[in-house]
Amino acid sequence: MAAPPPILLSFPKWLMSLLLLFSPIGWSYDALTPGCHLYPFNVSIRSDRRGTCKGTHLVYACVGYCESSAFPSRYSVLVASNFTHNITSASRCCTISKDAKVKVRLDCPRGRHHDEIEILTAKACRCDMCRKSRY
User: Which phi and psi angles does 67 have, rounded to 5°?
Assistant: First the structure.
């Protein structure tokens, strides 16, 4: 039997169990690599605070990171801003480039009725201009 890697020997077994217990199930190698990727997660929807009617559905978000930079502003920018804009930033954010509507079925107790609502899910992601809000 091969010996475990040295890094695993230095972790107490209880700590390793906690790390495994609190690790998100949906994490994949893609979500941890550079770039902007689709990331699946389950969304739960309730009709009211008591959860009278409820449903779940797998949807996708965009996660990851894109390049950004900050540098001293050019002299012409300084003059135009009365020397107040001394740093120029160029940044891009991971965002949804294509979305789709999906229907979530809300099941109610004792088969009273079934509601369907539409929510958005990401279909494609890209690095794009950062915005405060897209929707």
Answer: -75, 145
